[in-house]
Structures are given as structure tokens and as C-alpha cells.
Amino acid sequence: MKIGTRESRLALIQTEMFTNILGGNHEIVKIRSKGDMDRERPLKEIGGQGLFVNEINRMVLNGDLDCAVHSGKDLPTILNKELEVISVFDWKNYHDVIVFRGDLEGTGRMKIGTSSPRREEQIRKHAKNWDVFGLRGNIDTRLNKLDNGNYDGIVLSEAAMVRMYPSRDYEILDESIFVPAPGQGIIAVIARKDSPNYDDIKITEDPTARKRWDVERRISGIFNMGCSVPNGILYNPETEFLYMDINIRENVISIRIKVRTLQEAEMVARNVKEIMNYGDY
Ligand SMILES: NCc1[nH]cc(CCC(=O)O)c1CC(=O)O
Questions:
Q1: N or C terminus of the chain: which is more exposed, having fewer CB within 10 Å?
Q2: Does the keyword Transferase apply (predicted)?
Q3: How confident is the model at residue 5 (pLDDT cuts 50, 70, 90)?
């Protein structure tokens, strides 16, 4: 197969994880996205949902690629009707983590970098001795900025650390406070619904990852969320806990609730949306 992905080191590692499950020989096509080209401006200035994936998905749609491997978190909730997320896997590394500078001393006020409005909001609310600053770039760039002394610590995804820096120290942040972005840590494979490779791709799916994915996607669709919205959603398919951290102007709802089915999760989300007057914004 011709498999497309972003040119970042993380994207290539994730694509290799996919081809290892898939087996066989494949051509990997690296694509530089709009989000990769502009490394300075905050993401919400460059443009909305799908910044890192839309061009790649268009190539899958046109038949230039047989499939594409994405970070689940980067996929917009609305896809072209002819495309489908056929396989999802690796669901467990969903946490946010903090990585501290190696030579850090003392425990006073700390300068913390993050590139996500959700993480910024959660730090402001829950980590009162951390001052938060913007931080752009791919994972290697962000860690370089940390090591160069620009920050005392940076917050990023556990999945990125596990896959790219398995021997570097980090601290896991509690998911009931730092509720992650929907799909965080999950690897998602997209192809055309009528792809001749549909069944081969489907075999790589982890059914537990699929449970997590379906709940988080449904809820993120209900709230019409992109990653520029400071909302967190996590469903743990093993504990059956659903976490939601929804911020709408001055209104905040943070919950942990046990739900057993997609329908129950959807009902919780619709009720939260209703009582927050979400539709008015
Ligand atoms: N926001 C960009 C992005 N998209 C996917 C990952 C990492 C992999 C993942 O969490 O799925 C990251 C970096 C980060 O959140 O620090």
C-alpha cells in the first residue's frame, strides 16, 4: 500500500507501528501539512480543525494514497462521506504529562510551556504555582526549547513521550484534572470506504481502542470541538468512566461519570450541553 502521513518524527514512528501490525512491504509517503509549514504562529491563528490532516485526507480521497495514519487527536469530527476511520489502536497512553528541565532546582514559581489552549486553561485553574506560556513546534522542537532553558517544564502528551523518548523522565498528570483532548494518544488509520484494502486495515484495529474512540468522537461532535477549544473529553473503556471538562465562557463543568454504552455517553453530553446553554454561543 501507499501510506501517507505527516513528515514529523512522531508521525513516522506511528506509521511504523501500523505497518508492524499490518505486515508486508509498503511505501510511506511523507506530507508536509499547513500546520507543519508555519512553526511560529499559535495554531488557532493559522486555521481551524484539521490543519495537520486535511491535505493528506484529500490525497486518500483522490486515490493518490491507499490510506493515511494520523494522531487520532488531530482528526476533525467531520470527515468526507467517502472516507472512514477504519482502524484505531494504542489507546492507553492518553494522559498529559509534564517534562521538567534536567538541571531544574528548587520548587518555587515555575515557567511552564504548552501549545494547547485546553492545557493552558487547566494549568491556570489547577496549578497555581505554574505560570503558563505559549510553545509551538513539533515534539523535538518543544523539548529543545525546554532544554535550552526557555521553560522550567513543558506539558505534552504521554503518547508522544512514550513513542519518541521512552527513556526520558516525565510525570503523568491526573486525568480527572488534566482531562485530555478527545482521541489523544490513539492512532487512527483512514481510507476510502470502498478501498480494496478495507479488510486488511480493519484487522489492525483494537476493539477496546474502538470503544474509547467512538465515545470521545460522538461527544466531541456534539460539542463541535476543535483543539482550539479548551475542552477535555476522556472515556476509559476498562473502568467505564467518562471525564468531561467543558469550558464555555464563564461556565465550567467538570465531571466524572460511569457510562456503559455509547447511548448513555451521548445522553450525558447532550444534557451537559443543554444546561450550559451551549447552543447560544
Ligand atoms: N496537538 C498536536 C499533537 N497531535 C498529536 C500529538 C501527540 C500524539 C497524541 O497525543 O496523540 C500532539 C502533540 C501534543 O499533544 O503534545
A1: C
A2: yes
A3: very high
Which superfamily does 96-172 belong to?
Periplasmic binding protein-like II (3.40.190.10)
Interval between CA 216 and ligand 1 midpoint (Å): 16
Residue 87: partners with Cβ closer than 8 Å, 6 or more residues away = 18, 188, 189, 201, 202, 203, 204, 205
Residue range 106-151, pLDDT digits in tens: 778 999 999 899 999 999 999 999 999 999 888 999 999 999 999 9
Residue 116 CA: nearest ligand 1 atom is 1
**Per-domain boundaries in the chain:** 2-92+182-278, 96-172
Note the pLDDT tens digit of each residue in 37-93: 666 666 666 666 677 799 999 999 999 999 999 999 999 999 999 999 999 999 999
Residue 172 CA, distance from chain mean position? 16
Q: Tell me, what's the pLDDT at 33?
A: 73
Return the best residue to mutate from 13, 73, 90, 116 for the ligand 1 pocket (most ligand atoms within 8 A of CB). Answer: 73
Say if CB 49 and CB 182 are below 8 A apart: no
CB 187 within 8 A of CB 89: yes
Fold adopted by 2-92+182-278: D-Maltodextrin-Binding Protein; domain 2 (3.40.190)
The set of residues, in sequence order, having a beta carbon less than 8 Å from that of 101 and lying 6+ positions away, is 146, 147, 149, 151, 152, 153
For residue 143, the surrounding DSSP H or E stretch is helix 139-147
